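User: Second chain of the day. Same drill as before.
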Amino acid sequence: MKISKTSTTAHFVNLKRNARAIPYALKQTYTHLVGLLEPYQEHFEVKANTDVHFELWTNHVFRSNGLNAKYKKGLMFAAVVVFKKFVSLYFYPLYVSKSLKETLSDELKPFLTGESCFHFKTLEEIPLSELHKLIDDGFVFYKEQGWVKP
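Assistant: Same format as last time:
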């Protein structure tokens, strides 16, 4: 299985450079997405928790791939970041689990941009029940792998 350590920090740095007032619809969407992740917060380390950036990470130790492979600590579970025109949900279990990506519902597929990132503009467009199920399935996958705190 391919595992690489990624973060939304690079995206967030670019966002800080162009800081503007956040529209109410985006703020509302961000708050709701963070609310979906909060029940899982006790099992992960919160690496970012501001009004525009939220990240959950494991403390799992893994060996990186490549020529200079090293032991590293932490895999991202999920992150939510507010951008200029949308709110991104980075959901890392989709990146590390092909079976989870294959079971992705048709309601969520239009919002998937890239391998593990969803873009939402308003709260009304989010298929909440499908997203909640996906987050729960991702948590179960991490638990099965032994990547989550007991």
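The helical segments are 9-17, 24-37, 93-96, 98-102, 128-145.

User: Great, on to the next one.
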